[in-house]
Amino acid sequence: MDIRNPVYTATSAIDCEVAHPELGWIPFTASPQDIEAHGRDIYAAARQMGPADHVAPKGPSPEDILAAERAGMRLSFSQLLIGLVAEGWLSEPEGEAWLAGQLPAAVSALIETLPAEQRFAARARALRPSVVERMDPLVILLASAQQRGADELDVFFRSYALI
Predict the structure, then answer these.
(1) Which of 23, 78, 97, 108 lies at a C-alpha separation of 20 to 30 Å from 47?
(2) Are 19 and 2 in contact (CB under 8 A)?
(3) Phi and psi of 132, rounded to 5°?
(4) Cβ(66)–Cβ(121) below 8 Å
(5) Are 17 and 25 contacting, i.e. CB atoms less than 8 angstroms apart?
(6) pLDDT digits (tens, 9 = 90+) for 91-147
């Protein structure tokens, strides 16, 4: 019986490769409790080889987790306006005007800093958003204009998503 690359699993079984007469090297998980005798035999043979310790697969990095969370952060338009007024990013009259379809002067001014081909889409998203996405370039620009960092923007979205 030809066996190679034995490694203990998290459950104390042994992952290895076994030379199959027709298929060549195939993966196999051997266990001392296998209901088939050949499984128990492979386990015994692999164990004699001195399997390597199990190494758990690496999960996503904290940066990857945060990026995925940010990509999924969304607020409704009302949640956004409630948060902007509550946090003092907008005055209540500016929030009321935005509700009535008039962009605050600061938002309009920021949109004007965008390349001409992006301005209409930015105004449309600002005036009639179905959802407000955390990673929308306009949202990031607005936060930057308020001198708010990425972490503060995360907290904002987490907080006002609950309203």
Answers:
(1) 23
(2) yes
(3) -115, 115
(4) no
(5) yes
(6) 999 999 999 999 999 999 999 999 999 999 999 999 988 899 999 988 998 899 899
Distant-in-sequence, close-in-space partners of 107: CB < 8 Å, separation ≥ 6: 98, 126, 142
Tokens coding 31: 């266990």
72: buried, middle or exposed (CB in 10 Å: 19+, 13-18, 0-12)?
exposed
Determine the 3-state secondary structure of 163 from DSSP: coil
* Beta carbons within 8 Å of 148's beta carbon, 6+ residues apart: 89, 156
pTM of the model as a whole:
0.62
Pairing mode, strands 132-133 and 24-30: unpaired
